[in-house]
Amino acid sequence: MTLFRHFGNKKGIVEAAIDKYAFVDLLANTFEQKIIWDLEQDLKMLAKEYQLLVEEKKPLILLSFREAAEFPELDELLSFIPQKFKQILEDYFDQMIQKKKLKKVDPSVIATNFIFINIGYFFMNSRMNSITEKLSIENFVENNIDFFIQALN
């Protein structure tokens, strides 16, 4: 079944994408439920959860990027997602600094870098399968998130 047969038209696709993008709230809820205030375990958990969610929504995410210029509401939604994710991370890093479990750094900078790492993996995995075939989510988390965490300690 084609996308248009399933959704009717581009507007139907956009509306479905908007409904499906509630995953940011799912991510926030998962993070709140599973947080243990251990930098390594929390960030690895969040990276895995994020990758699983975006992989599940991959067709709509990729289509949404292609169609964002035509649908302003979709473009607005696409900018909301990283902003919300960044706010979740900034709050977490700020609390970790207050708890003295993280050295004093700018929470905005490290949140942005964490997002770049995760979005980068998602897009590489979506577009360059031959490069990322050897880099499973588990390997990505163990190697790249470990490297990120070491930079914070």
Automatic annotation (TrEMBL):
Residues 65-150 form the Transcriptional regulator TetR C-terminal Proteobacteria type domain. This is TetR family transcriptional regulator. It comes from Pseudogracilibacillus auburnensis. The lineage of its organism: Bacteria, Bacillati, Bacillota, Bacilli, Bacillales.
